[in-house]
Amino acid sequence: MAALRAACALLFTMAACSHDWDAYDPRLGTTGGDGGGGASPTTTSSTGATTTGSTSGSTTSSSTSSNMGGGGAGPTEVTYTAAVADCVRPTMPNPDTCETEVGAGTMTVDTEYDPPIDLTPRHSYLRFDLDGTLAGKTIDGATLRVRVTAISGAESNQTGELWQVQPFTRNDLFVSTPSAVGSSPIADDQGPVALSELVSFSVPTSLISPNGSVYLGLLPLTTNGVDYYNANGAEPPVLVVDYH
User: Fold this and answer.
1) Cα dihedral 185/186/192/196 (nearest 10)
2) Average pLDDT over the chain, rounded to whole?
3) Predicted pLDDT of residue 22
4) Residue 23: pLDDT above 60?
5) Phi-psi region at 214: left, alpha or beta (left = phi > 0; alpha = psi -120 to 50)
6) Closest listed residue to residue 110, CA positions, set 86, 91, 89
7) Torsion of the alpha carbons at 43, 47, 49 and 50, rounded to the nearest 10
């Protein structure tokens, strides 16, 4: 618990400590790949966007687009890196404090952060700023992808639920947490996850619009919290939009 957290902090200066040290053997998830033959997918930068990931202090999403078809016009996807992806303690919101608690480049989703010392939850909030790439296009699907960190204790028996939330900026997260939209999550908990696992949540296409923003919250269901890379982490969250 607290003693183990202190020890972990000394051993892993830049990494997240576990907030539930019970033994746990998660089932490995699977991830699918894009099948099909033909020419290899080609990737191009979207107008006005960069092809690199989020950098520290960034408040603007970046995106890349690729044609997944083998010949002629085919389905295309564009990937947006999170402009904001941070955790907060709802009763005392401060994303910088939450990142310090969990570890640099990390956000957590947990119902009880450090029992029995700290029984308060931690929620994570994400914002994606879309560009004009999707103007005049038909949206076929959208997926949030978040990566579990590689530090022992980051794995969990539950991923948390994905909710649509009210619009927010990162500065807002120092004052309050955005309210959930609706009475149910837009994507259910995905079950057990292992270290370094890529977790995918389906996002309703109704939330996607050119030059708009998507506001999401990952809310916990378990005391065995899960740690993901945040916007400044080794692999920031991304929103992948399929269109034609």
Assistant:
1) -130
2) 80
3) 42
4) no
5) beta
6) 89
7) 40
